[in-house]
Amino acid sequence: MTGTTRLSGILLDSVILIDLLNGIEEAERYLQDREGSLSISAITRAEVLAGLDGAQAEKVRGFLDRFVLHPIDAAVADEAARLKRLHRWKLPDALQAACALLHKHRLATRNTKDFDPKKFSWVEVPYRI
Q1: Which of 39, 50, 57, 66 is deepest in the core (most CB within 10 A)?
Q2: pTM, two decimal places
Q3: H or E stretch including 78?
Q4: What is the pLDDT of residue 35?
């Protein structure tokens, strides 16, 4: 993505929502300050729900329903495959990146191992813990 592309929103990586569910205040403040510009991918939804039991998952599903959900369609899958080969990312990370890039969103994450904001202008690290 070039520096001239205007980014229109924020795609939340799973770790940000997991932080919120674990009571991390920085995550709560970050989400409150950006309400209305946030979305999630199908990957984020699955990763968050995978760590919860039935009763917890039902409650969190309602919370996740408040976000715009970006599906994994053919365009996202194709771009993820390209990014996986290029950067040697795990497939979920490549899918997150592809989703953010194709929807012209910044990716909000704490995963600086794979998504170094110095290397990728579309990555935002909202806080550190």
Answers
A1: 39
A2: 0.91
A3: helix 74-87
A4: 81
